Amino acid sequence: MRKYVTVFPSNSEVSKTRRSMEFSSPASRFISKISPEEFVRAWLSSKTLEEVAKKTGMTYAAVGTRARKYLKQGVELPRLEKRASGRGGIPRLDIQGLNELIELATTKKE
Questions:
Q1: Of 27, 102, 109, 110, which has the highest C-beta tally within 10 A?
Q2: Separation CA 48–CA 6 (nearest Å)
Q3: Nearest C-alpha neighbor of 64 from the set 39, 91, 29, 37
Q4: Can you tell me the distance from the alpha carbon of 94 to that of 85, in angstroms, rounded to the nearest whole number?
Q5: Region 15-32: what's the mean pLDDT?
Q6: How far apart are the first and last CA of the chain?
Q7: Whose CA is closest to 56, among 74, 36, 73, 72?
């Protein structure tokens, strides 16, 4: 019959782990050091979320998250475009133009 021994880490190992978690957690790199006032100033002087991200040094997603948080708390941020040219460089769909293209292609086949 096998005997299993449970080994607990020493107190010094536990405190090292706690310290490393406090000061170098992966989430800490996502915490923005920009104040709410600076964020709102950047927001008001921008046309798109991408522009706010460039001005603040935040990611596009972080800008959206912070804006939603402020809106939920009652800050009346004006609405901005999500991206400068539609969806991340993809031009908006010209539905009428695409349908005309399809119609031209199908009439040529007949």
A1: 102
A2: 56
A3: 39
A4: 13
A5: 52
A6: 83
A7: 36
